[in-house]
């Protein structure tokens, strides 16, 4: 019985550390990041871009069919490109998180759904969930063994 309480305490402590420990400081040095995003038929391609905090990001927006815009509200940056033209946008990704970017020019009926995602930093929520799942599996196996 004492062993059961001790193992329950140990699994709970490990789960709490995984869930609530602060994210480690990134050891990745800021870099110059370049992306070419094509805008056409109510979609961005690629739809998601990933950078590290501190990276200097340059986005070339290429409008394929109509006038399109790209705005990232959290960074207060915006650019508009004419059909067949390229427009450039630059900023420093200073805040970690996931941010939406959207088209700023009413380009048709599906315009409100023309969004993409900028991910700044690693996905700690995914890694924490994976760690907690592993602890749950190991504790289940330990309990089944008893």
General description of the model:
The chain has 146 residues and is an alpha/beta fold. It has 2 domains: 2-21 and 127-145, no CATH class; 32-123, Immunoglobulin-like (Sandwich), CATH 2.60.40. Helix content is 28%, strand content 36%. It contains 2 helices and 9 strands, in the order αβββββββββα. A 4-stranded mixed sheet has the order 2-1-4-7, with no helix packed on it. A 3-stranded mixed sheet has the order 3-9-8, with no helix packed on it. Strands 5-6 form a two-stranded antiparallel sheet. Strand 1 (32-40) and strand 2 (43-45) form a beta hairpin. Helix 1 (2-20) runs antiparallel to helix 2. The radius of gyration is 22 Å and the shape is elongated.
Task: Explain the layout of strands and helices.
Layout: H1 2-20, E1 32-40, E2 43-45, E3 48-51, E4 56-63, E5 68-72, E6 77-81, E7 86-92, E8 97-102, E9 115-120, H2 124-145
Parallel strand pairs: 1-4, 3-9
Antiparallel strand pairs: 1-2, 4-7, 5-6, 8-9
Short summary of the structure?
By secondary structure, the chain is of the alpha/beta class. The protein contains two helices and nine strands.
Q: What order do the SSEs take from the amino end to the carboxyl end, as H and E?
A: HEEEEEEEEEH
How many whole angstroms does the radius of gyration measure?
22 Å
Question: In this structure, how is the largest beta sheet organized?
Answer: 4 strands, mixed
Q: What's the CATH C level of the largest domain?
A: Mainly Beta
CATH topology of the largest domain: Immunoglobulin-like
How far from one another are the termini?
11 Å
Number of helices: 2
Q: Unreliable runs, pLDDT <50, ≥5 residues?
A: none
Strand percentage: 35-45%
Report the CATH superfamily of the largest domain: Cupredoxins -  blue copper proteins
Average pLDDT reading: 85
By helix and strand content, what is the structural category? alpha/beta
Label the overall shape.
Answer: elongated
Report the CATH architecture of the largest domain. Answer: Sandwich
The tally of beta strands, per DSSP, is 9
Q: What number of structural domains do the residues give?
A: 2
Spatial ordering of strands, largest sheet: 2-1-4-7
Q: Work out the helicity level.
A: 25-40%
């Amino acid at each position: 019985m004492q062993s059961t309480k001790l193992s329950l305490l140990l699994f709970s402590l490990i789960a709490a550390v995984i869930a609530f420990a602060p994210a480690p400081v990134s050891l990745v040095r800021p870099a110059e990041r370049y992306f070419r995003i094509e805008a056409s038929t109510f979609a961005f391609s690629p739809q998601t871009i990933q950078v590290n905090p501190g990276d200097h990001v340059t986005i070339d927006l290429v409008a394929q069919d109509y006038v399109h815009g790209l705005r990232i509200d959290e960074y207060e940056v915006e650019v508009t490109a004419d059909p067949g033209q390229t427009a450039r946008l630059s900023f420093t990704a200073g805040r970690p998180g996931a941010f939406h970017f959207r088209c700023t020019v009413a380009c048709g009926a599906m315009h409100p759904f023309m969004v993409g995602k900028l991910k700044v930093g690693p996905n700690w929520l995914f890694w924490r969930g994976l760690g907690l799942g592993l602890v749950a599996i190991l504790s289940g196996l330990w309990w089944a063994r008893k």
